[in-house]
Amino acid sequence: MTKRYEDASWKESMRIKLDVNNMFAETVGEEHGYTKADVDSMKERVIAGHKAIRAAKEAGDLGFMELPESHKAIAKEIKEYADANKDKYDNFVVLGIGGSALGNIALQTALNHPYYNLNKEARNGYPRLFVPDNVDPTRLKGLLETLDLSRTVFNVISKSGGTAETMSQFLTARAMVVEELGEDAVGNHFIATTSQHSGNLIKIAKEEGMKTYYIPENVGGRFSVMTPVGLISAAFTGIDIEELLAGAAYMDEICNTDDLWKNPAYLNAVLQYLADQDGKPMSVMMPYAHDLKDLADWYRQLWAESLGKKYDRQGKVVNVGPTPVKALGATDQHSQAQLYMEGPFDKVVTFLEVDNYKETLEIAPGYKDISGVSYLGGHTFNELLTVEKKATELALVDNNRLNCTVTFPEVNAFTIGQFFYMYELSTALMGEFYDINAFDQPGVELGKQYAYGVLEREGFAEMKEKFDARPKKDENLIL
């Protein structure tokens, strides 16, 4: 049977679009807006960046670019495994943090019923999904005490198998499963998603007889949503993961050009980079659809961890990187928009909007004698949210504030796959502009090493000594 994403006309109808009109001087004024000449001045750097990115892909260094093709067969196997095993479980729990959790959450919010866990009909036989994404003791203990462990499966996600947060979650969940169900139950209630060839988790998984899936060595956590990291939980909640990869493949096809005027990922990178260089380092992502709310969270990690770097590739201290901020329309019109409209000229707002929402809901009529209320009746919430987005966009333009919009024809696995890939590729080109390694996170690693030392992990005694020798706090400055 032909899949809809195999139909060229359907794919084109589902193409997400980047609208950058409000980044230009003709719209927001010459003081803050750009000209086409400004953009064209980046052409040689874009061509060089495109060449470097494609060369790195060919060398096997940019694994995220390989996933739309390399994970087709893996996605098929994951789907078959999920469909064969979903009836065994009422609960699917992701044990992971950061890049091992945010993509899972974004997919669930975007593609499943907004009250999926509470709506048995919407689940259609698939288990509920829980992603603790932290080691807060109250929240984790509450979850583990609430779930029927005999009907729960945990996906433990850690490439190294040494992530303190993930492995502490695993140790605790495993102990509770063993206490309640016995040692022999571990292999049936835990999946390991990790490195195939090294690390602690793969060793544990083999000893315990867990089902295992592998994270490619050349794919970092924040780029891993279209590996088993994100695909397994998506498949266990009924999401079409093959369509997700097809969407990413479509965006790769669109972006396989060094012509920045035809490449949305590159044009986005150029304009965001120019804005940062002009003193606008705050990059706000503001979805006007609750479905897309957690894409902003995923984007925040991608941008911050990839582009916030102390050193360039030559080892020179540069301290670069835009600051990503998440917002939600229309909610944050009532909390953040005042700052965006009248505060410092240090921000670019990227709206996410939807042409066709999954549902249409009419606003009920009433109070005909009160004009300030009755005008709403007969309209739809769809209209209200769309109009509020366009009104906020216009208000930003009136205040000479840079903004752009990514439009989704509708929210489905195909359009979400496009979005993920477009922003991952934008990130790669931004790394070329800054001349940094966009695929490591040394600042994060330092904090981890201090924690390892304090918790007495073997090999980190020196970090404990440094931690213990940290400056003492002045009690007079603690009020």
Give a concise summary.
The chain is α/β, with parallel strands linked by helices and 479 residues long.
Please, could you describe this protein's structure?
This protein has 479 residues and is an alpha/beta fold. It has three domains: 247 residues, Rossmann fold; 178 residues, Glucose-6-phosphate isomerase like protein, domain 1 (Rossmann fold), CATH 3.40.50.10490; 33 residues, no CATH class. It contains 22 helices and twelve strands. Strands 1-12-11-7-10 form a five-stranded mixed sheet, with helices on both faces. A five-stranded parallel sheet has the order 3-2-4-5-6, with helices on both faces. Strands 8-9 form a two-stranded antiparallel ribbon. Helix 7 packs parallel to helix 13 and helix 14 packs across helix 20. The longest helix has 22 residues. 44% of the residues are buried. The model has no long low-confidence stretch (mean pLDDT 96).
List its traits.
479 residues, alpha/beta, Rossmann fold, five-stranded mixed sheet, five-stranded parallel sheet, 22 helices, 12 strands, 47% helix
Name the CATH homologous superfamily of the largest domain. Answer: Glucose-6-phosphate isomerase like protein, domain 1
Shape: globular
Sheet with most strands: 5 strands, mixed
Number of strands: 12
Q: What is the radius of gyration computed over CA atoms, rounded to a whole number of angstroms?
A: 24 Å
Q: Which CATH C-level class of the largest domain is it?
A: Alpha Beta
Distance between the termini: 69 Å
The CATH topology of the largest domain turns out to be Rossmann fold
What strand line-up does the widest sheet have?
Answer: 1-12-11-7-10
List segments where confidence is low: pLDDT < 50 over at least 5 consecutive residues. Answer: none
Helix content bin:
40-55%
